[in-house]
Amino acid sequence: MSEKKAVVRLSVHAVVDATLHESDLTPASGALRRMREGAMAHRARQSGEREKQYRAEVALTADYEGERLTLRVSGRADGICVREDGMTLVEEIKLGAPDSPLDPAHSAQVRVYGHMLCQAQALERVALRVLYVGGRGEPLRAYEEERTAAQLRADFDALCAPACAWEEEKLARRQARDASLGALAFPFAAYRAGQRRFAQNVYVAIRERKRLFAQAPTGIGKTMAALYPALLAVGRGLCPRALFLTARVTGREAAVNALRALSQAGARVLAVEIAAKDKVCPRETRDCLVCPLACGFYDRLPQALLQAMHAPGVFDRGGIEALASAYRLCPFELSLELARVADVVVGDYNYVYDPFVAIESLLPACLLVDEAHQLAPRVRDAYSGEVGAEELRRLRREVGAAHGRKAPLYRALSATLRALTALAESPEFDSLQAPPGALTGAVETLLERAGEQLALEGSACAAEVFRLTSAYLLAAGRFDARYAVLTEGAEKHAALRLQCLDAAPEVLAASKRARGTVYFSATLAPFDAARRTLGSLEGDACLNLPSPFDPGQLRAHVAPIDIRYASREATAVQVAQAICAHLSRYPGHTLVFFPSYAYMERIGELVLGEAGLAQTAFARERRGMSEDEKKALLEAFDEQAGARVVLFAVLGGAFSEGIDLPGRRLQNVIVVSTGMPRPDAQVRAMQAYYDAQGEDGFLMAMVLPGMVRVIQAAGRLIRTDSDEGSLLLIDSRFETPRIRNLLRGTLVGDALSAEVR
Questions:
Q1: Is the entire prediction scored with pTM above 0.85?
Q2: Using one digit for the tens of pLDDT, what is the confidence trace for 429-441?
Q3: 94 — phi, psi (to 5°)?
Q4: Domains (ranges, CATH) in the chain?
């Protein structure tokens, strides 16, 4: 009996793109272009109502038989109708201009749909139309032709052949991958305490397509415990790929190192790290419109992808930059293209959870969400939108320089600015309960003008306007009880933000498309709160692993000083004295965390004025530090350094999470305050929202975020079994039962309990 061929599903767009792809990268290429065309085409479908039996968004499918696999091609035709002469017509709608020439890719797409329709309805002949429309959906130019079913079948086969050949290359690589993963052993001699249990739970979550909430303290080896079972699941066909999502560079680095260890253990996987565009761009001045790496990008891309597939491995930032250099490609865009064929993708949350950045083709996959306590705030911001007078004026200046002050986009920016200014001058500006209609209408027009400008003559500023307006209108269209209108400033400085307060439905939507989701962090409990912010499904599992370290490794103390905002100036000297006393008592490198930059500066002045701290080098975190500047500060934490280093930093900042300073590189941590956020308009709105839901808004909006910051900061200290160190918590609230209960079960809580005894 012959072996059954594999079935590979592709979209019509993907099939056509394999042959008739764009040549250059432009601001209107990729997701931005598809989003723009989709929005405009949706409006234009009404143009078909003048024809008989017009149907929009018609799902169609057809198969192509390759040598080793069956290609199942599917998509939705924009419109199908019956002409007055009785001929069935298939319509494809694209954004364009009155003089738009017929794009060969658009013609190919409508021919594929024509073949599918002929096959589905046994038609001998159909009419095909490519309709170009304007920003408001108005018809501008149409191209029509008639083709027989036989001609359309030939067109379909010719388009599918190269796409099928590419899929067969991918199939061969997957088979080699699966063979290697079937024999993959854990890459280390033994599991750490709690690591095997974590890995087992991760595998079950993927196998059962469930969600796992795991609090796993520092030292367990969470990254490897998540990736190893995920690769086993990929090799056994339980999920097509694994997505390791994290909010920090250090999280990506840990995942890349774990994947290298797995590769050395025999895993033949293609793993890709996606780094931020600004970090990987090799040009001194980034201008994608004139970049030679963008010109001809899609022509050179296939050979680069083929090389990566024939020599799989871990393509971290350096590996991608080398491959991009060899083929003269944009390294950022190359990483996105590699991600589409990779077995493991390491990147930011955005590539799954941001509606404007997400790579749709990455799902379904198993999701491994690192530092998951940061996910809900990130998704809330992704589904929020804002327009501000200062930003609108900046964009207007750039649009004027690029396209002239008579350009429709420039005029639309002026109209939006006038609408916002007029609103800011009105008495209801500070008490708005819903998106204001006049401003929203102006932003809608601005979106249309930005889309038109991108279609006619792309520019970076037009693309930025499109993103800004799209985000605002997305929030306006979804606005309900989960949103709040936040305003600030007046006239020239006015800003209006539509803030999402609860992202649970959006997080759940990604989970439902995934093949198992694992949320893990050292600070995920209490699980009721985590499931409230990340959504709750029947079958969710929770795993709380104890710290593998002895509480005796951490000497923890509390200095019960009142540092609530109203008392900070009065107790500033006490706080400085407590810090100095701790530094005098405990030698070694030290991190001192403060609730804000301003308070850090105030206390820092007092500490530096104290005597008795000889041989101490003080440093401070600054706003907007580059990655190189952060690394330089951390390199000063050297075990062999003559003078000890004391770094002042902010809770929730670059140095309070994700950094690893084992041994004598870090011996003391001082945390000033319980880390509660400043009760600004957004925090107050979130507290009110949860209170209205019958929950403890103060706990959700203030206390829990603060405790996450404290535990994460304290977690920088004990990293291995041999580490020892001291922790000082300065705030009278650390002695309250509520805070102590939230610390229970963590190394900090255990160490404090031991200190009391």
A1: yes
A2: 999 999 999 999 9
A3: -135, 150
A4: 6-169 (3.90.320.10), 176-381+511-544 (3.40.50.300), 384-500 (1.10.275), 551-756 (3.40.50.300)
